Amino acid sequence: MTAANTQPRVADVREILSEVMDPEYGTLSIVDLGIVADVVIEHDVVGVTLLPTMAGCPAREVIESDVRSALAHAGVSKVTVKWCLDGSWKPQRLSTKAVAQLGKEFSIAIRNNGALPSCPICNMASLREVSPVGPTRCRSVAWCDECRNVVEVVG
Amino acid sequence: MRTWSDLDDFQDFLDAGGMVEADDDMPDEYRNEVFRFIEFHANSELMGGLTERDWIPHAPGLRLKQIFLAKTQDEIGHAHLLYMVAADMGVKTRDEMIDDLLAGKSRFHNVFHYRAETWADQIAIAFLVDAAAFASQRAVFAKCTYGPYKRILRRIVGEEGFHMRHGEEMLLKMASGSQVQRDLFQAALERWWWPAVQLFGPDSPSDDPLLKWYVKSERNEVLRHAYVQKYVPLLHGYGFTVPDDGLHQDAETGEWMMSEIDWAPLKATLSNSGPDSERRLANAVRNHAESAWFRESIGVSA
Predict the structure, then answer these.
(1) Cβ–Cβ gap B77/A136 under 8 Å
(2) Is B151 on the interface with A (CB under 8 A)?
(3) CATH number of B7-273
């Protein structure tokens, strides 16, 4: 995308959004985290629907502003951003890359159909839930009895 | 579990980039220093979180209330994770750490020994103090040879970095606001500049064990100097005056040089006799007592 008046395509917009990083986890994009629910283009207006991991997510404004500036930077000026607040974000929306990176880089595990997953650090089935919430309300806190590390669990 | 024959052997392991894990038979000297460092960090997160909480009702508007709620949750949550890792080191239990903190026997960051007078103070804290804490935590994360601590620091550093964006946004609002707002922030800056600079601590001693064991990656004075280079031009850019009469740019290097720092205020905070230490600790004690019913209902102690 170079010229400002070129008609953008959905694939271009998705490409741009895949460069918008989560404000807390700067190495994961909002596309990888499953926060981008939909992209439509109607009469040269780009409509982006975002799906927060939870409705009360405090990062919503920052994410929206990053989406707008990334698109503006790429020459896409007519943009509407909507938030879908029906609570439909699920850990299954995470990309394979995101799941791997959350485990490896951030020691964050993804709940397995309601059950505690194996420890992302030592891979043993040794997690024990300690509290239903931690630094953020979208993750619980667990302790690994095997490698003695704190793990946070999504979902 | 790994063992080392002596401190030299252990040092060789660390020099080669080794990472210590919870079940390693680490030297007691290392265990005690790392424990003290994590306990200090945990105490600081808890005391910081209680301050953020105090300002939720005063935050102007629903959005800022939401931000302060989330920040409070972050800080208390960080304390929770840090106390878990610290307690596992077997030096003190979690209850002992909380008891010592509330009894005024432990230390926490100097900046939580001062009173936030106005909403502008909260902005100065978010903009200046959070940034200083972030720089110092990031420098610990960069090496940090104690694995369980490094892993939670990865998340803590990410979350604190996000807080700084809120600080910048709130400052921009004040800086582009009315003269009353600008004056309020200038007054807050005068209260918080020196505590923020002192958060990095006095110059690191040449034999600092935390540096030797790569818990910290950088000397205090280097971090402090880098912070001053970044924040002086930012504050000037917004049209504020840094409260340091001796502040000047070095003629050759162009670097910002500060007046000599008076370390007496920092020392006072380290013995819990700072300007607001007593009220802060009393507040924490009351909070702990008032939330006892909740801990009992979920079957935990501290």
Answers:
(1) yes
(2) yes
(3) 1.20.1260.10
